[in-house]
Amino acid sequence: MLYLAEGARAEVVPGSRLREPVRLALDGLVVSAWAGEGPGGYENYLMRTHGNAWGLWTEGDEFRFDTATGLLESLSMRLPEDNLADPGVLAPWLAVTPVAGLPRRADKKAFGTDVAAVRWCAEDGSVLAGLYGSAAGPVAEPLRLRVTGEFDLLFAGGRLAGWLLENPERHLVGPADETLDAHPPDPEFAVLLKQYFDLIDHPHMAELFEEEAPEGRQLLASLRERIALDRGAVHRRSVLVEKIKDLDTQWYCA
């Protein structure tokens, strides 16, 4: 038995997976696999599923379950702005093999969830993870539950502790078009995306950008110049270039 939050029990159905792929959006800093598109929009989707949202808003990461089967159908996880100081915290999960499966909840009562407190991106950009504050300290019985391709929910001692996305650059989508780019992995761009996450962590944003320090603008420009648009996954690279331009306009040209 697993727990998604205090009192929110779920069993695992081995081998099941979400039907939607996971997407990484820089606008809003969200990692999601969402099946709620269609007639009626988000409000109608909430009526057809159950989970942890009250009304049209939830303060935590969002989980929606199929009312008939109880299986997890959609999730939306917020990417925190603070980088993890000690990457060794993730070592217990990196050392285990993902297990494919989906949580199933028969209980239709709404429940509260947190959002991840810190994030970590591997030096080569191959992994992006978010950890809840409860993940601090020794990790007992680490589990990586693979709910969809390259995306895992992380559990410790049966309780949700965070999430992990492999090859995050492959899942990057833009604000106007959430279609996943079919271009093969781009290792060079993966490192550049990692550098972007390093740059926009909370201390940098407070010290360099929110005070409109010229050093911040120079760092943004330097990163943008290193993102070549004549090779690799050009579409995904363009998404990051446009985001950097938006930040420059927002912080320095407003």
Question: What are its keywords?
Answer:
about 250 residues; alpha+beta; 2 domains; eight-stranded mixed beta sheet; six-stranded mixed beta sheet; about 25% helix; globular
Q: How would you explain this protein's 3D organization?
A:
- The protein has 6 helices and 14 strands.
- The protein has 254 residues and is an alpha+beta fold.
- Helix 4 (202-209) crosses helix 5.
- Helices cover 26% and strands 28% of the residues.
- Strand 12 and strand 13 form a beta hairpin.
- It folds into 2 domains: 2-170, no CATH class; 181-252, no CATH class.
Name the helix and strand elements from N-terminus to C-terminus, one letter apiece. EEEEHEEEHEEEEEEEHHHH
Largest sheet: 8 strands, mixed
Q: List segments where confidence is low: pLDDT < 50 over at least 5 consecutive residues.
A: none
Distance between the termini: 51 Å
Principal-axis shape? globular
Number of helices: 6
Give me the count of strands: 14
Number of domains: 2
Our Rg estimate from Cα atoms comes to 19 Å
**Category from helices, strands and their pairing:** alpha+beta
Strand order of the largest sheet: 1-2-8-11-12-13-10-9
Write the layout of secondary structure elements.
Layout: E1 2-5, E2 8-14, E3 23-25, E4 30-33, H1 41-48, E5 49-51, E6 62-66, E7 72-78, H2 91-94, E8 99-104, E9 118-121, E10 127-131, E11 143-148, E12 151-156, E13 159-166, E14 172-173, H3 187-199, H4 202-209, H5 214-226, H6 234-252
Parallel strand pairs: 3-14, 8-11
Antiparallel strand pairs: 1-2, 2-8, 3-4, 4-7, 5-6, 6-7, 9-10, 10-13, 11-12, 12-13
